[in-house]
Amino acid sequence: MIVELVCVGTELLLGNIVNTNAAYLAEMCARLGLSCYYQTVVGDNEERMRSVIRTAVDRSDVVILCGGLGPTEDDLTKEIAAEVMGKELYEDPHSKERIQAYMDNYLKTNPKMTLTANNWKQAMVPEGAIVLDNANGTAPGIIIEDGGKTVILLPGPPNELIPMFENQVYPYLREKQPEVIYSKMIKICGIGESMAETMIKDMIDAQTNPTIATYAKTGEVHLRITARAKDEKEAQKLIKPVVRELKVRFGTNIYTTDEKKTLEEAVLELLKEKELTLSTAESCTGGMLASRLINVPGASDVYKEGFITYSNKAKRKHLMVKKQTLKMYGAVSEKTAKEMAKGCCFNTGSDVSVAITGIAGPDGGTEEKPVGLVYIACCYKKEVYVQELRLNGNRMKIREQATVKALTLLRECILENFKKDSSSSFS
Prior knowledge:
Elements: E1 2-8, H1 10-13, H2 20-31, E2 35-42, H3 46-59, E3 62-66, H4 77-84, E4 89-91, H5 93-109, E5 124-126, E6 130-132, E7 141-146, E8 149-154, H6 158-176, E9 180-189, H7 193-199, H8 201-206, E10 211-217, E11 220-229, H9 232-250, E12 254-256, H10 263-273, E13 278-282, H11 288-294, E14 303-308, H12 312-319, H13 323-329, H14 334-348, E15 352-358, E16 373-380, E17 383-390, H15 395-417
Parallel strand pairs: 1-2, 1-3, 3-8, 13-14, 13-15
Antiparallel strand pairs: 4-5, 6-7, 7-8, 9-11, 9-12, 10-11, 15-16, 16-17
Helix pairs in contact: 2-6, 3-4, 10-15
């Protein structure tokens, strides 16, 4: 089945808003096994919208439109989609009732606001349409079916679109598929995309069903294994041996097979499992590592303290980095990273610490120490491992990469220390 995505909004064309909806919907449709050949962005212009929607309906089985369902005059998606599909609009009592309830609740906390007549525009729906309740806003979603074609209208705000799609549209589209599409995610750290692909090239070349798709993330590689079958049980049976083989090839570089689990969640789970406490010391990342860790619910069970020691004075005061070390080797050096990690562990009484120091740019680099040079140190019960990195990209990209590398190194150090031969990997 062929699906086409149409995102509506002049603000998207002007770059005022990043079009995250298209990326989300494309990925979800891929999971459903739908073929997506076209994605279009069109502004709030009646003539152009009409042309885009007609073209999409002509060449695709399902057209998903997002945006343009608001109460103002330039919100035209529903009206034009109904026209293209030959449907009249009528006021839906159920939608009006929900809009009234939503606005009543909103006005309680915003007494200076008033309910205006144009809000009822959102209660108008095409005849014969399936109406999708919006639990997070006033614009209902709409599904129009006619002549073997389906047009799905979704609100533009992601916090309304995503739950509506996952709870109502995804099950609807899955029912229309002749086969079940089931997928499993493998998340890998410590290996780059090109290396990961090389390690499974023979599997990719020979694949038919299931298939393996690689996705490059900052400091990570995600592998999605997807199978088509008559039912989910059969699809899982097809995927199982592929997952088993990937585990053999990537070993401990696989940090999870749970699609929703992040690297920081996996690291904190490992710390809890091993009954270890953690503290962090950051320079160039400026708290980015601590932020990712603290963003995980329950982080306080293992995470004790974090230092942002941007200046040399702060490194000496809070982390006991020696003045002589900074003078001889500089703030961005293996020696400084090691002392930062040790000082962090000592001052917090943590079992494990991670320290990051580097040059994020765009200035400050030299021929000897270029922008992107980063040292990460992990101290595990007084033993320290230091990693030197040469990262590329702008300031934010370098900081993001360093943060992921720090999480990866932390995970590797914990795993190594729980092996019998761990001592050979540490200095």
